[in-house]
Task: structure prediction
Amino acid sequence: MKLYMHPFSQHCRRVLMLCRELGLKIDRIVVALDRGEHKTEDFLRLSRTGLIPVLADGDLRLAESHAIMRYLSAVSGDRAFYPADVKARAVVDMWLDWNHTRLNPPIQTIAIQQIVMKDKADQSIIASAHTQAQDALAILDRALNSRDSIGGAVTLADLSIASTLALYELVGGSPSHHSAVSAWFEGLKRRPSFHETAPRMA
Ligand SMILES: N[C@@H](CCC(=O)N[C@@H](CS)C(=O)NCC(=O)O)C(=O)O
Result:
């Protein structure tokens, strides 16, 4: 199996974290986003989305980090990170969707402003995205405090959200105003899958 990826991408990191957790071997192929390699015809033949990560397994080409994580769970026979029980699985799916739609977007906005736009970054967009990210973290904090749907056994949702928070820290954000999120995130950071997939700073 091959993963077309970039070490600074949170979407790729969550897939690599899962591979590490499941003991799956995967070849990493770095896609040079800065040179627009993901928009070339060669790459678009792999995935019309023009986004990383993309998994290649035999004749399968699969984009979307969460779809890849579900596929890897299925082929590995994993029932821990993506439970077989229909209700438990639905709750994992709920948090995966929540990350995609609520937490990740403002954090990705901050990253694009700071890393891609650099000097041309719009500080008002960054400030508003931080507010949205903190509002989302307040929701996660309440859920973790109630311990009714997340914060128990580690699942795909925990890995996905942790990868997003890692990017948030990389671009100067912090979950420290939310004590339950901070404690939960510190626990995830202690897992080998987290620190072994950290991007190496030049
Ligand atoms: N929903 C997608 C998002 C993937 C995504 O946004 N990837 C970014 C890197 S983190 C990318 O390829 N960006 C290149 C671009 O937008 O041109 C997933 O979960 O895989």
Q: What stands out?
A: The beta strands are 2-5, 27-30, 54-57, 60-63.
